[in-house]
Amino acid sequence: MLAEARKALPYPETAMTQTLLLLPGDGIGPEVCAQVRRVAAVVTPDLRIEEMIYGGASYDAHGTPLTDETRAAALAADAVLMGAVGGPKWADAPRDKRPEAALLGLRKAMEVFANLRPAICFEPLADASTLKREVIAGLDIMIVRELTGGVYFGEPRGIETLADGQQRGVDTQVYTTSEIERVSRVAFELARGRGNRVTSCEKSNVMESGLLWKQVVTALHARDYADVTLEHMLADNAAMQLVRNPLQFDVILTDNLFGDILSDEASQLTGSLGMLPSAALGAPGKPGLYEPIHGSAPDIAGKGWANPLAAILSFEMALRWSLGRAEIADRVLAAVKRALDDGARTRDLGGRMGTAEMGDAMLKAL
Ligand code: NAD
Ligand code: IPM
Ligand code: MN
User: Which domains are present in the chain?
Assistant: First the structure.
């Protein structure tokens, strides 16, 4: 509708028009993205939102979870916001055609190597977590997860049949100096703007790639970021410390796989997985990829229960990190706080609201 209206305008669109590519995906993805649209219509009526199918939905329609057209649209957009992909329906799809492969392919194509996953416990939610209030009240952690390398992409990989008839599954964890350095820079830069502390997590006691990770982070710190406090922590200890005393952390820097796991763990400190947004960033000026960290939640998909705040906060991050609209981002963040202050709660937060009602609460707060 908006696109048609724009075509009817008597003057050409200027380069100032910004485009957000919305990829709702599967399961609760479309449900939470619908609420993002409602928020965007209020705070950024001038933003052009293009929507394309993606993930399992795209596999069903086009035989591939990520079409060339969608990949090109993502690279041409100012920012990309996705809902979630995957689900049991596609469990038997060919490996390279699984919805999750589309997500990995898009991250790689967009070269978004630094994944910012902020875990913030909003004050009214300090009682919504399964952890005690005194452990999590005031929580404000930034997890910086490496996103385009490591065991997610390393070669060789695959399942092969051995001479004795057994099968063997192989994944390869691999990092180069430059891959570690560029994501570490992001962590150190972010730390300077907040608590000035970085905890780098790896398994240097066991893994060669972990040892290199520690050496590269140490050298970069000494060279360019000696003013930032750096601590190294083994990733298994970090997982324990996150639930023992999470307030000790400021910025957590870690690899692709540990970052995936630690961020799901951290989400529960905020009250729910439905609260955690993310921003995947690459080179300055290139579009970022924004996504809630949760999945398609097949167990609640279609019920209208999903918490849309992780998706709305991902939009907030897009406004801040890709669209240059920090003031509007502040407004969205303030509205999330106000809605929670006013008692808005979806089921995952111990309330009874549905997805659209949380959207209503957001619009009211705005
Ligand atoms: P999940 O994140 O989908 O769900 C885990 C649990 O959290 C479920 O009980 C779910 O109901 C709940 N939950 C998640 N988001 C919620 C929300 N917004 N509001 C309320 N409750 C919420 O993880 P899973 O079940 O392990 O994975 C399901 C599928 O999603 C898999 O196919 C997986 O690969 C995929 N996945 C996709 C993404 C993504 O697209 N970014 C991320 C994670 C998992
Ligand atoms: C995430 C998800 C993805 C990941 C999957 C769906 C590929 O779990 O974004 O956290 O492992 O990176
Ligand atoms: Mn994950």
Answer: 1-117+275-366 (3.40.718.10), 140-269 (3.40.718.10)
